[in-house]
Amino acid sequence: MLGRTLILTDDVSRAGRLARNLGGDGDVSLHDLYGDAAPPSGAALIISDVSALTSESLRRLRQALAVVRGPETPFLALIHGNLGRGEIQASALGATKVLQASAASALLLNTVTALAAGATARPPGGGDLRHQATASRDAFVAIFRADGAPALATVESGAVLVNRAIRDAKVRDWLDVVASFDDATHRHCLSVAGLAADFARTLGLNDVDSRYLIKGALLHDIGKAKIPRAILNKPGPLTPEERCEMDRHPAIGHAMLLNGHYDALTLSVVRSHHEYLDGSGYPDGLRGQEIPDLVRLITISDIFAALIEARPYKAPKPAHEAYAILKAMGAKLDTDLVRAFGAVATACEMPYRASA
Known about the structure:
The chain is α/β, with parallel strands linked by helices. It contains 16 helices and five strands. The two termini are 42 Å apart.
């Protein structure tokens, strides 16, 4: 029923008990990550059961997955110890789902069954990207709450998901999938995150710096969680009073994150992503070198996303028109970074279809 399952493990005895819990009999194979044998191929489902995700065990897992995992093969990562840290590491490995290793046998079996069923039901072409985008949206929903700062591990996990999706797919396809989501603020922040991820790739940033940038993109509008929804979702231009309320969101978001163990640069992204180099932005009227490079990158991605998105009161602009507007902003933006963003803008040309 489950199909052939492969368990990658650092403890064959423990993995054997896991196999018996799954009731797989001969359909479950074990592979010792620290043994000499090569991992068997042809698995319909892969499970990792590693007690400690050290740099060495991660290297061995990555090496084994490269051999045995196909593009449509689901991968369940069981986490021993800290779930938040484990989720980040598992996401970096490309896990389809993460589960605490101490979960009850019934929960584990249900999870494995669902993953196996999903592998056969997943449509060819684009299924992985939609799954990644949906998982990113789920992470973002957990981030975008009005009751305080989101857990740093949740944001890190979301950044890993977006970074992997953009690495594996085209940014215009990411935007196309995200455009189908219902909530306008979710769509926008996930669009900015995808653009930031592709911008990072264009600039040659490493994975650590890319995720740092994407984390800022996911959080940049967190203050809108405390803006009245009647203003956020108004089907028309805002009144001056409503615009004043909306413009409070950078300061609100900054205040929300102050006690959430976020670093100073991420806090700067949240507070200053509407600042311009000529001092005409808000909320602090910063100028020039007062605005860090990371903030400048997010500002460019944020403006471009807003321009290419459809809103009830405006049609989306084609990517080349949106990029022309960025260039026309001149001294407000970092011209070198705007020039570099040209490759991202080109990649966003049709067939991207913005949702109304």
